[in-house]
Amino acid sequence: MEEYSSEDYSDILKKFQCDHNRDIEESFARAFAENDDVNLFFINEDSAYTDGRNIVVDPAFLDIYKDKECLEGTEKKLSWPSLISSNPWTALKMVTRGLTLHECLHLLYTNFPGNEFKDPDFMENKNGRKVISNISNIIEDAYIEAVGASVYDNIGIYLMFNRVAVYLAKKETEGTAQKKLAPIIKKAKEEEKEDLIKKMGLLMEYLNYMCGFLLFPMFKIGDPPEEIKEYVDKTRQLFLDGSMQAEPDDRYKYCKKIYEIIEPLVPKDEEIQLPEDILPKIVAGKESHNGTNNSIGGQERKGKPQVVITRLFGNIDGTPKNNVDTDVPTLVIAVKGFGQDEKEADDITGYKGYHIQHTSASVGATPLHKNIKINENHPKINLNLRKAYQNIYNQYRLNINSYNSRFLQLLRAQVPVKENKFPFGTGIDSRRLGDIKRRFWFRILPGIEIPDMSVLLLIDGSGSMYQERRDSAMVSCVILHEVLKKQGIEHAIVEHRAHFKDPEIDVNILVDFNARENEKLNIMQLDADGDNRDGLALYWAEKYINSKTSCDNKLIIVISDGQPAHEYDEYYGPVADKDTANATKKIMSRGTNIIAISLDDEDEYNTYDNLKNIYPNLIACNNLKRLTGQLLQIISRQLQ
Prior knowledge:
Blueprint: H1 6-16, H2 19-33, E1 39-42, E2 48-50, E3 54-57, H3 68-77, H4 88-109, H5 126-151, H6 156-168, H7 177-185, H8 190-215, H9 226-242, H10 248-262, H11 328-349, E4 354-359, E5 373-378, H12 386-395, H13 397-414, E6 415-422, E7 427-428, E8 441-447, E9 453-460, H14 468-487, E10 490-498, E11 504-511, H15 534-548, E12 553-560, H16 573-589, E13 592-599, H17 606-611, E14 618-621, H18 627-639
Helix pairs in contact: 1-4, 2-4, 3-6, 4-5, 4-6, 5-8, 5-10, 7-8, 8-9, 9-10, 13-14, 14-18, 15-16
């Protein structure tokens, strides 16, 4: 069996927490919780919780994924083959999926915030509210896992795995009542300390015992200590009955009955302030029940009622099951899928980018460029740019949806579809004249098909494209990519620049044709530096679009804010203009259309005037807010 070092575990966790894998888990959460507004985040804080909308999960909860003894013990307890203990990635998947499912079940069936935060009996009783929140935590956890066992197929393996694994985990938990409560006990008066330590120690011991009784029935916890036996005996059945109530409000009524019995264990507010939770670390999701806003955008929710017919590890009456269905076939299928997820994560996190160097002759350029090298760069994807990309996407979401609707209407109008087998219509299908039901008419209806078109956006990356022009180009690229991807139109986004005094140009392929999902983050790397050698860049672009796409309708869109100029061999002025104009003419004559957009300052057309003799199809843009619309208008006209 393979041994892993501390560095190995760290690398696997880092790979697991990549955005691609988080997206997989978030998509699963949205589907299971039946809510597309659910967001899921990874953290490293030994916790998992939801605030009614957002789910926060620590894949490395209690370090289970690298606790070999815990994993092997869990497999033995559940009578599973050694599929999880042999692979930390699989263990991370099991932990994460189990925590995600647990919180999704809360989203569906638990009230947010909990009833205790609206109960007038606890408005002024802060300690009481904290204690009843912990009682509710135990009961709600038992209930939603009973729902998982009663209602849903194929999720029991995750819930059972996490319930057993957290119990067997070696990582240190909070420890004794004295250790956990020491900081707040220091604030109490000296003569009160001993009584408070004893009182709160009994309270924690009681809650811990009831937690073990209700949530970990697969392990023998023994008889309760004599000091809390009376409270346990009086509330044991209330915990069992309360955790089986279909209505959230009914479950809360049982919580209140329990609280009334154990109230003598709860210190008064004037004596001391209890911490928010006083349950052991092995109870994940405690923050879901403490009523605080753990993340932005939490929502108030009413849990839906659901009758349960069994418990995760026991019968409805709380007695142990003779045989727990551990569903090994489902586990085997799940582990196989996790392997594919790991491969995809390897492809993303292990992708280092690459570079290819071309000569000018290899792209068919004129002798004017004979000494110039072309550096074709496929940059490494920087996953840290996801938030920046998402911010732009969120800001322009309405624009993206609007453009998608327009394209959809255009495509419907452009692609007629013939449908037959009608009893009446616009024409007769002679092949169906023998139909005894006389369904030989056909109709012509608007249809949709993927356009036979490819687009290469060639962006001037020279030093003059700074600040507003760069930012506008970046926003336009994000919107353009999202719209074209949605419409199934092949496209690439390329930035080009020339080295000032060196015989080289760079073409940086930010988004390639048929790009992987995370390539879009490269758009955030748009920059402004160097010169521009447009003629050579166009020759390269023609060869690239022809080598990557096979459709008949090819389009290169050039975005530029000035005339071509490369300091190395004084490639500027009439020579550069004429060379670029000739390149444009040749490429268009060979079947690839070129349309350029000139970027100018407001109320000016200097760039337009300088470029109009280079590009026969030139569009002026002196209002950067209109750039995206102009780009998409160009593409829509090509489809007509």
